[in-house]
Each structure stands twice: as structure tokens, then as C-alpha cells.
Amino acid sequence: MKKLDNEKELVKKALAVGGAYAEKRGAAQFEDGDSANERLEFIYRLLVRDKLIQPMPELQVSQQTIRHRLALWAKSLTPN
């Protein structure tokens, strides 16, 4: 897995866009006390459930791989 050049910024964008998607869909109401890792995992699992991203094998799911997968998703949302 090759790290993206601007992966941190893309993860922040994925948190914002994915959080807004989850709230608009009525699946979650994030609070200030929720950790970023919990939010990222919830967003990942929601996007997989809605078939917006490909699922990873459960043995490969970790915070690092979730961050990378969501960064790729956020990158795909950005027009070139």
C-alpha cells in the first residue's frame, strides 16, 4: 500500500464528507466527544454497506488501511 502525497488532507475531507453523508442519511449523529478513529471506522463500514466502496477482507481492516481506503475515496470525489 503506497501512501498518498496528501493523505492527511484527504482523510480530513473523508471525515467531513462521510460524516455529512452519514448524518444526512440518518445513520449517525456524531458528537464532539467521538474519536476520529471511531468516526472513520463507522464511515468506512457505512460506505461498504451502501456499496460506495469495495470492502476489504476483515483480517486486513485496521485504522491504517481504513484511513488509506477513505483517502482514496475522498480523492475520487475531487474533480481533476
TrEMBL record:
Pfam families from the UniProt entry: DUF5062
Listed name of the protein: DUF5062 family protein
